Task: structure prediction
Amino acid sequence: MTSIEDLETPVVTIDLAVMEANIRKMQDYCDRHDIRFRPHIKTHKIPEIAELQRAAGARGITCQKLGEAEVFAEAGFEDIFISYNLIGTAKLKRLMELSRKARISVAADSAAVVGGIAEAAQAAGLEIPVMVECDTGAGRTGVQSPRQALELALLIDRTTGVSFQGLMTFPTSMEGTPPFLAEALDLLSGAGLTAHIVSGGGTPQSWRVHEIPQINEHRAGTYVYNDSNTVAAGTATLEECAMRVRMTVVSRPTEDRAILDGGSKTLSAERLLWKDPQYGTILEYPEAVIYHYSEEHANVDLAACGRKPAVGEPVTVIPNHCCVVSNLHDQVIGVRDGQVEVVWNVKARGLVR
Amino acid sequence: MTSIEDLETPVVTIDLAVMEANIRKMQDYCDRHDIRFRPHIKTHKIPEIAELQRAAGARGITCQKLGEAEVFAEAGFEDIFISYNLIGTAKLKRLMELSRKARISVAADSAAVVGGIAEAAQAAGLEIPVMVECDTGAGRTGVQSPRQALELALLIDRTTGVSFQGLMTFPTSMEGTPPFLAEALDLLSGAGLTAHIVSGGGTPQSWRVHEIPQINEHRAGTYVYNDSNTVAAGTATLEECAMRVRMTVVSRPTEDRAILDGGSKTLSAERLLWKDPQYGTILEYPEAVIYHYSEEHANVDLAACGRKPAVGEPVTVIPNHCCVVSNLHDQVIGVRDGQVEVVWNVKARGLVR
Result:
């Protein structure tokens, strides 16, 4: 048996009991409200964890990139939604190949994207299910109005090689999502089209999704590990954070400054809730603030700490954003009761294409 | 022959002619001023590129982590400086093993770090050259005063298993570094100790290092590729940026917004000069601003652009910080005159330990 104390730092650990409880809690919530749950695997990028989500009751998975879908199809997942505009000859060829192995649905927010997919599907003799992506307030991708959603759905419906599957948005917003979806569904209904799936996404609003009657599918990723962002958003508690990065104090240059043995290469450069320059939460020193980083150093302000760590002392950091931390590490260590139980390869790490 | 146009996006390309000129320019500068140049390999993490730096005249290399040094020692590099406090039984065992294969020098900024190294070296029957790290203004690691530098040097000098090699700092500062080094060298000299190497680091001050007479070694990494940060700092021009991330416009949801097919997983979440929320420079659309990111999306404001890109159009992004981009990708593509010449594995990617 290897104890967590014996692991060289910095190292990403996953508390298995916490992760299992997170999986159970989200699935129970969705089941209770009759919402189909399709976890986003971008958070862990590990087929073995997706297996646990499937065993708990998840129906299908979500991937952000084609390369991720290829890994998970190879691992035996048969219902994969790629929530991304796929563009270009090479990617469309890969999409067609993948669609012969698994049921792959995709997102689209423009006629250009739909046209490319349809042309490739026609040549391959396939029909690809397409979800119309709706921008319900996030200001990222997605059609900008219910009217545009209708127009794109009509285009999909009348085009050979693609079939209209429904509507999707990210992230689900309690303000912007309900009116957009209600109007879009009315328009679709008036045109004789059915949105079989109406899919919202994102961990922060997870426990309120049932308040939006239009949504019949939920996609969430972060919930499986949780992080300082979900804690700051009030969606989870620190105790529900399964990803814990063990680090070591390598320098105490001043009374109030400690330096940890990892920075943006270990924790990423992401700020708290994308705004606050605070790069993670130290469990043993809750008053400490990680105020700056470089690639291999995290600068910690200890001014508010009564007790202060010595050089060589290990600490446990809850990162701001667990998904991006997964993408920085080839392996994560599953632990239970302080002992190493499993070492997982982050198999879909780094697949940007 | 594969053209750059045929590469699937997002993809990290290295313009070889630009990189070769960057290597030549820095080595020429150091040679002209009789400064020993020890490039930091964290920027590229690729032994083949370090070979080009060595062939140009570099004397030794710098690594930030032991894992990087292991990769480069295996690749045949015999003089490696690890500019990091190494702590803990496992790492010190690895350091001793590595020291049997190559000349490994290390940094230290406390008696605790020196003590650990010395104890392991005594047990192994080795002597490890140690550089005293000095904080000359950056507020990260390093002893805080010339007096502390002297004390640590004296400790190293009288301890079996370690030998005092000299002083190092990062980054070299035109304000803070000269007075600190001058005073520390005086104190050392007064105590009968010789700093064989006085090493400064960092690309931004590269062209002024010769103005600091105490420095006889320069360490720089970023110069090999350059990036939006070095351009913003005035150290390089956009034309001297060898790392160019090819991306594709996957959405044009509004007149003034484009979305590229990569975000923090491709470009990192690092701001411009660690402050400005602008996530890279688009060569074809210099008026465009990458104002927001998520993992697989970059949001671009096109308001100031006369011409605006269509969905499917490729663009070329100069990232803010090339070193962290290297760490996100398993491979980079070396191109010359628009044609692929070499595919390099980023062999030391992700080695945080």
About this structure: Residues 137 and 155 of chain A are 24 Å apart (CA to CA). The longest helix of chain A spans residues 16-32. The mean pLDDT of chain A is 97. Chain A is about 30% helix and 25% strand.
